[in-house]
Amino acid sequence: MRSDELNRQTWERRSVVQEYAGRGAVWAVETAIFETYRAQIAGRRILDVGCGAGRTTAALLAYSRQYVGLDYSDGMIRQFKRKFPGVAIVQGDMRRMTEVGERAFDFVLCSFNTLDYVSHEDRLATLREIRRVLAEGGLFVFSSHNLAFRDARAEPRLEWTGNPVRLARNMGTFAAESWNHARNRQAQVEGDGYAILNDCGHGYRLLTYYIEKSRQAAQLAAAGFTLLERFDKTGKMLGPRDDDSHSSFIYYVARKT
Asked: pLDDT tier at 180 (50, 70, 90 boundaries)?
């Protein structure tokens, strides 16, 4: 099964939709980026790709009312509309945003590692599509899983405890995760500077794209972007040779060239 097909099944699960509906706070690294680039965001046309149930919506609306969310999950869109009635949202696919015109936005956000849940070829297509909908000089901000992260290839682990009730629950979780991992890891992909791994996300139900930061810079350049900055998950700026093994994902800021 292709990674995007398997992942979409997870995003449509009722429990996953409910979990995302309950998330309402932006991360510290996102707040730092928004404030750093306030002049390029405030009052501008914003597209929130993979907006889900609206985790970043309130924060972005504080910068500009010219906001549009985009997601492909029916369940996520229903939750979004309940939380933000009257706020524009489009049901669409980031790989082919036929609902969005060329150069229609000044700022595109793709948060929560949304780019990482499609195939390698579709990821490259998405980068080109985001460039298409961005105005000249527009900003593209996104996060992506880090292949250099020390736990990127972690296997399911049983969490031991002296509490028998909790231990029984942990054993059930371990058994379910081990089953999912045994089945889904057969679809893992090893590439040049990237890998699609069956990681711990949602109980080892996902196939997730991990990439080295140097390889991500090359992908951006090939798609027509200039990389401006990288940040680890705490909001610390990362140089090309800085150790990033502590950070499960990296945030990138790029400009359409």
From this structure: very high
